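With this grant's support, the team has encoded backbone shapes as discrete tokens. A representative record is reproduced below.
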Amino acid sequence: MAAAPQEWVDAYGTRLFGLCMHLCRQRDAAEELYQETWVRVLMKRDSFRDGEPFEPWLTRICVNLYRDSLRRQRLRRFLPLSGLETTAVSPQISSDERLSLLDAVGRLPDKLRVAVILVYMQGYTESQAAGILGLSVNGVKSRLLRARKLLKEALVDE
């Protein structure tokens, strides 16, 4: 890979930090995940295969580090919704509806929540999300279908 580390940060840093905020939902934890991801990228850059897209590889590292931190902490509940500054949620909904939706996403089981974040908030295709998560495309579609069903139920109750 010919790009220098600073070029990677310039090109992908903002989007990566947004992903970290979506996953962690607390600024301190997101900053830690962000920095840990870049350290891992530098350590593993020899394993990156030239010709493959860089961003899915970077995202896979970030998501795997996030999952590892959950396993280490045995955290199966999600961190409280705070510090979430940006999302790709439709601008046509009101801020109250947006907060309700983000809160409902935060209550999803981890497997479903990560798929929703990657596809609906980070803009990855189902195929790209499948590669990042190590699933089949149908596996991602199944998780998204279950997540939409749970979100619909949660939002109808409100």
Q: What stands out?
A: The longest helix spans residues 137-157. Residues 49 and 101 are 38 Å apart (CA to CA). Helices lie at 5-24, 27-44, 54-73, 95-106, 110-121, 126-133, 137-157. The radius of gyration is 16 Å.
